[in-house]
Amino acid sequence: MSQPASRPISRLDVFIARMTAQKAFLEQVAAALDVAGPVLELGLGNGRTFDHLRTILPDREIFVFDRAVTAHPASIPDGDHMIVGEIRDTLAFCGPRVGALAALVHCDLGTGDPTADLVKRAWLSPLIAERTAPGGYVASGIALDMDGFDELPRSDAAERGRYWLYRKSR
Ligand SMILES: C[S@@+](CC[C@H](N)C(=O)[O-])C[C@H]1O[C@@H](n2cnc3c(N)ncnc32)[C@H](O)[C@@H]1O
Hints:
170 residues; alpha/beta; Rossmann fold
């Protein structure tokens, strides 16, 4: 994304970069995914990325996590695939319901507050790492501490919009 060098980056610039990076990472992973397993969508929100994931990965089971269901009515998962509760609890104990380790975890839980995101990073990173299959991917709007994963290269939009992509070693 280019803009005149003479003005500072606005929050709208950052938001657009973030959405650009988010979409590009999800589509990059969808094209490259070569491991079995479901997709875990952390943060249903309005349901926009859930809807995009089911469009670009029509053959994958997608489990969605949120503390509440407030999505657009056209983008709500069925009851078997909507896991309601605090992710700190539900991600830790979802194994019997979800089954196989995930081929892709999409983490869209960022607050935009650096301190709150650091807190989330501390408890969330090991939970995501544990639920990801070898060779699987994690796309995240929070920087994570992913032991045993490689951080993949980031575009300018991902740098500016603060989006990260990791892949678990096989
Ligand atoms: C940015 S929104 C997700 C946007 C969504 N991916 C979309 O494209 O519409 C973040 C969502 O994560 C949920 N959330 C944040 N932290 C959570 C937590 N600790 N446990 C459960 N849900 C959480 C919020 O309720 C909110 O709906």
